[in-house]
Amino acid sequence: MKKPKIYDLRNLERMLDFPFPLIHVGWMPHHIHYHNDTLITDCFICLSSNVESSSESIVNGVKQISPERVTPHFGVIRPGTRFHTITAAYHDELFFSYPAECYEKLVKLLRGNTSFCFSAYPEEPMADLKRELENLNEPGAADRVDVAAIRLFTEIITKYREKGENVKKRQCLDIHDLAADLLDGNDLQSLIADYGYSERTFYREWNKAFSESPKEYVIKHKISQACDLLAGTSLTPCEIATMCNFKRTGYFHQVFKQRTGKTPGEFRAEYKKRSLADLGEKKREK
Description:
Oligomer: single chain
Largest sheet: 6 strands, antiparallel
Structural class: alpha+beta
Order of helices and strands: EEEEEEEEEHEHHHHHHHHH
């Protein structure tokens, strides 16, 4: 897939009752997009790579910085997320959109792996997906694309989890790999040793790639993930604290309020209130 293209699967006949029916698949090479307080209504899985510079956005009221990265990044965007771009960056993007009701099922299928970097696209699942997209006029094509997308995600996550479970001692590896392992809850000092860095070399390489400290990088990711789970699931704050690798629920509440100005309960209530208001506004527009 060399040229930009969006494949619309909404009106294609399905022969199977597959639980994850795609709406769109899009391939956008060297793509840049600005969100102007945009409300996302579908569930998106976005695979971005070759990000040429860092970018800044406000996501559900929380400022986030995404670093420059060459390795691909896997991200799930829940329906109801509100984006506002401050600075954007050119990047390659492969995205998949699903009906909003698929979000919780997808998060469960992915075992909570909703944001991480991975080493490379798996060749065979990518070839299968490309082949099915090029033959959408054939009977059963939409079903095969639905299955091919899930197979691609499964392959990516399987390899990602295997890598996380078998951290080896390596010299001079991409700092983004270490950052991904850090987000999994691994101890920073242990990772520095496992990756073969001296502490001085590690911080020199880290500061080239990221604008915040490792601690700040992890906290921002945890709070962003917690916001997604509070808004998109019915999990309790205690369950969310555990999923986001907070060791104590009380500390989670403390940090969450410091970063968002709200308790987890207040954030969830405000999100539900705003969602109902948006729904009412849409009904009035119709």
